Amino acid sequence: MRLVATKSVKPGSKLAQPVYNDKGSILVQKDMELTKKMINRLKALRYTYVYIRDDRLQDVELEFSTSSEERLKAMQVIHKSFQEIKQSDNGKYLTEKMTEKITTSIQEMVSNLRPKRQTLTILSDMLIFDDYIFSHSVNVALYAMAIANEMKLPVSVVEEIGFGAILHDVGKMFVPQEVLQKTGKLNNEEFEKIKEHTTKGFHYLRKMNNIPLVIAHCAYQHHERMNGSGYPRGIQGSDIHLYGKIIGIADVFDAVTSNRVYRDAMLPHEGLEILFAGAGELFDMEMVEAFKRSVAIYPTGLTVRLSDGRAGIVIRQNEDINTRPIVRILEEADGTEPDPYEVNLYEHLNITVVACSTAAESN
């Protein structure tokens, strides 16, 4: 089983994991042989990656930090919540019942965040959603809670951060869809409308008696940056709430590692490079380091090239250090194909990953 970019999947490939829609129904069954029509459908739905069967990797199993069912349930809750907002006279309230459902979903996800377990891999959840905002909100919640969990914050704080992350983009419900879905570059006026989602979300949430005021500040501050270059207020450093700093990091990472209408997704290690490039200036360094320890930088199934010239597939994560996975070698440095064998990069510190690929193999 290997991780392959949907845009490079070839007809005749067989799925190693099923693909679901937002109703929990299977769109493409596990072991199904993909046709050109199916592949085009997945591309049209902006699904970024699929797991494809490979006879040399039949024993490789995926480990999920959260189950597909959990994430599906959470996304359905946020979908219904945002629908409720839209239908309640331009968003006057979010019912007590719906806030309880969000709280329950968050608590379920928190209970499955395992200390010192680097398997947070959103890439491997085979779900397709018709609106980026819903899946993004749940992904950001998972990432933000992983950071908080790694920082050893109290469970109650982790849950509150997750709640704030779920609702951090609620203000986008009040931004014109044509602006949100625009494929080309935004003009200045359109970008100003996008930026308004922080203040609109804040003013909406702060009026709700059944939600703590700090949740409103999650919506307000997740685009603020340590050096004051963010928005809407341009505050900096200690003036930015802890939750806003954490959610801001999670928000950027998920944004760059997700397929969007205007660009392709980055791989996790590329997304982390973006965060580290801004660490200390845009993002809190301690929080970026905590996130690095929490996410699967090289997801299981990813094709990697090693510094000694060999190539293979990541087959497992090392719990102690997620930058050095176990790789099954499928190609020697001279281009020959050996009988597959494993190299644990944790045990060979002189060997590093120098390149990654999600391209399909040549026929």
Automatic annotation (TrEMBL):
Under the heading Pfam families, the entry gives: HD_5 (PF13487)
InterPro entries according to UniProt: HD/PDEase_dom, HD_domain, HD_GYP_dom, HDIG_dom
The cross-references to SMART domains, in alphabetical order and at most eight, read: HDc
The HD domain is annotated at 133-256
Origin: domain of life: Bacteria
Q: Which residues form the HD-GYP domain?
A: 111-307
This protein's name: HDIG domain-containing protein
